[in-house]
Protein backbone atom coordinates (compact mmCIF):
# COMPACT_ATOMS: atom_id res chain seq x y z
CA UNK A 1 0.00 0.00 0.00
CA UNK A 2 1.43 3.37 -0.93
CA UNK A 3 1.71 6.31 1.42
CA UNK A 4 -0.87 8.31 -0.53
CA UNK A 5 -3.54 5.63 -0.37
CA UNK A 6 -3.05 5.44 3.40
CA UNK A 7 -3.05 9.22 3.80
CA UNK A 8 -6.09 9.90 1.59
CA UNK A 9 -8.72 9.04 4.25
CA UNK A 10 -6.86 11.13 6.81
CA UNK A 11 -6.70 14.09 4.44
CA UNK A 12 -10.39 13.70 3.61
CA UNK A 13 -11.24 13.66 7.32
CA UNK A 14 -9.15 16.76 7.94
CA UNK A 15 -10.89 18.52 5.05
CA UNK A 16 -14.32 17.67 6.50
CA UNK A 17 -13.32 18.88 9.97
CA UNK A 18 -11.97 22.13 8.52
CA UNK A 19 -15.14 22.67 6.50
CA UNK A 20 -17.32 22.15 9.59
CA UNK A 21 -15.13 24.48 11.66
CA UNK A 22 -15.24 27.21 9.03
CA UNK A 23 -19.02 26.84 8.77
CA UNK A 24 -19.58 27.09 12.54
CA UNK A 25 -16.82 29.45 13.73
CA UNK A 26 -15.73 31.41 10.70
CA UNK A 27 -13.24 33.92 12.11
CA UNK A 28 -11.66 31.63 14.69
CA UNK A 29 -11.32 28.76 12.19
CA UNK A 30 -9.75 31.00 9.56
CA UNK A 31 -7.31 32.30 12.17
CA UNK A 32 -6.33 28.71 13.08
CA UNK A 33 -5.98 27.81 9.41
CA UNK A 34 -3.69 30.81 8.86
CA UNK A 35 -1.53 29.76 11.82
CA UNK A 36 -1.39 26.17 10.52
CA UNK A 37 -0.46 27.30 7.03
CA UNK A 38 2.28 29.54 8.44
CA UNK A 39 3.66 26.60 10.45
CA UNK A 40 3.66 24.38 7.35
CA UNK A 41 5.39 27.12 5.35
CA UNK A 42 8.11 27.55 7.97
CA UNK A 43 8.69 23.80 8.21
CA UNK A 44 8.90 23.54 4.41
CA UNK A 45 11.43 26.38 4.36
CA UNK A 46 13.45 24.62 7.06
CA UNK A 47 13.52 21.42 5.00
CA UNK A 48 14.53 23.44 1.93
CA UNK A 49 17.38 25.12 3.81
CA UNK A 50 18.59 21.78 5.15
CA UNK A 51 18.49 20.31 1.63
CA UNK A 52 20.39 23.24 0.15
CA UNK A 53 23.07 23.73 2.80
CA UNK A 54 23.73 20.09 3.73
CA UNK A 55 25.00 19.10 0.27
CA UNK A 56 28.79 19.24 0.62
CA UNK A 57 31.23 20.03 3.46
CA UNK A 58 32.56 23.59 3.47
CA UNK A 59 35.65 24.40 1.40
CA UNK A 60 38.14 24.59 4.30
CA UNK A 61 36.60 21.95 6.56
CA UNK A 62 38.26 18.57 7.10
CA UNK A 63 36.66 15.56 5.38
CA UNK A 64 34.17 13.49 7.33
CA UNK A 65 35.74 10.62 9.23
CA UNK A 66 35.01 7.18 7.78
CA UNK A 67 36.21 4.01 9.53
CA UNK A 68 39.02 2.27 7.65
CA UNK A 69 37.13 -1.02 7.45
CA UNK A 70 34.17 0.56 5.67
CA UNK A 71 36.19 2.46 3.07
CA UNK A 72 35.69 1.08 -0.43
CA UNK A 73 38.57 0.04 -2.62
CA UNK A 74 39.88 2.80 -4.91
CA UNK A 75 38.12 2.86 -8.27
CA UNK A 76 39.27 4.61 -11.41
CA UNK A 77 37.39 7.87 -11.83
CA UNK A 78 35.17 8.15 -14.88
CA UNK A 79 36.17 10.52 -17.64
CA UNK A 80 33.48 13.04 -16.76
CA UNK A 81 32.24 13.54 -13.22
CA UNK A 82 29.35 15.69 -12.17
CA UNK A 83 28.85 17.25 -8.75
CA UNK A 84 26.18 15.82 -6.50
CA UNK A 85 24.95 19.29 -5.54
CA UNK A 86 23.73 19.95 -9.11
CA UNK A 87 21.12 17.17 -8.94
CA UNK A 88 19.56 18.51 -5.76
CA UNK A 89 19.47 22.03 -7.11
CA UNK A 90 17.82 20.85 -10.31
CA UNK A 91 15.14 19.02 -8.34
CA UNK A 92 14.46 22.09 -6.20
CA UNK A 93 14.28 24.21 -9.35
CA UNK A 94 11.83 21.73 -10.89
CA UNK A 95 9.63 21.90 -7.79
CA UNK A 96 9.66 25.69 -7.90
CA UNK A 97 8.78 25.66 -11.61
CA UNK A 98 5.80 23.36 -11.06
CA UNK A 99 4.57 25.21 -7.97
CA UNK A 100 4.88 28.66 -9.55
CA UNK A 101 3.23 27.68 -12.79
CA UNK A 102 0.42 25.88 -10.97
CA UNK A 103 -0.29 28.92 -8.82
CA UNK A 104 -0.24 31.16 -11.88
CA UNK A 105 -2.58 28.83 -13.73
CA UNK A 106 -4.93 28.70 -10.75
CA UNK A 107 -5.17 32.48 -10.63
CA UNK A 108 -5.65 32.72 -14.39
CA UNK A 109 -8.32 30.01 -14.46
CA UNK A 110 -10.15 31.65 -11.56
CA UNK A 111 -10.54 34.93 -13.43
CA UNK A 112 -11.11 33.54 -16.91
CA UNK A 113 -13.45 30.82 -15.63
CA UNK A 114 -15.62 33.33 -13.81
CA UNK A 115 -15.77 35.59 -16.86
CA UNK A 116 -16.47 32.63 -19.16
CA UNK A 117 -19.29 31.43 -16.92
CA UNK A 118 -20.84 34.88 -16.92
CA UNK A 119 -20.56 35.16 -20.71
CA UNK A 120 -22.00 31.67 -21.32
CA UNK A 121 -24.93 32.36 -19.01
CA UNK A 122 -25.90 35.33 -21.17
CA UNK A 123 -25.03 33.86 -24.58
CA UNK A 124 -24.77 30.04 -24.62
CA UNK A 125 -23.30 30.01 -28.14
CA UNK A 126 -20.02 31.39 -26.69
CA UNK A 127 -19.30 28.14 -24.81
CA UNK A 128 -16.62 26.90 -27.24
CA UNK A 129 -14.74 30.20 -27.28
CA UNK A 130 -14.92 30.52 -23.51
CA UNK A 131 -13.48 27.04 -22.97
CA UNK A 132 -10.59 27.81 -25.33
CA UNK A 133 -9.69 30.85 -23.21
CA UNK A 134 -9.86 28.81 -19.99
CA UNK A 135 -7.76 26.08 -21.64
CA UNK A 136 -5.10 28.63 -22.61
CA UNK A 137 -4.94 29.78 -19.01
CA UNK A 138 -4.50 26.17 -17.89
CA UNK A 139 -1.64 25.79 -20.37
CA UNK A 140 0.55 27.81 -18.00
CA UNK A 141 0.71 24.81 -15.64
CA UNK A 142 1.65 22.51 -18.51
CA UNK A 143 4.56 24.82 -19.44
CA UNK A 144 5.84 24.58 -15.87
CA UNK A 145 5.56 20.80 -15.98
CA UNK A 146 7.55 20.68 -19.23
CA UNK A 147 10.28 22.87 -17.70
CA UNK A 148 10.38 20.56 -14.65
CA UNK A 149 10.73 17.47 -16.84
CA UNK A 150 13.62 19.11 -18.70
CA UNK A 151 15.32 20.05 -15.41
CA UNK A 152 14.90 16.57 -13.96
CA UNK A 153 16.30 15.08 -17.16
CA UNK A 154 19.46 17.17 -16.74
CA UNK A 155 19.85 16.29 -13.03
Query: How large is the radius of gyration?
Result: 24 Å
Per DSSP, what share of the residues sits in E-state strands of 2 or more residues?
Answer: under 5%
Task: Please write the string of helix (H) and strand (E) elements.
Answer: HHHH
Largest sheet: none
What this model shows, in words?
- With 155 residues, the protein is an all-alpha fold.
- The chain has helices spanning 3-24, 26-53, 84-122, 127-154.
- Helix 1 packs antiparallel against helix 2 and helix 3 (84-122) runs antiparallel to helix 4.
Summarize the structure.
This protein is mostly helical and 155 residues long. The protein has 4 helices and no strands. The two termini are 29 Å apart.
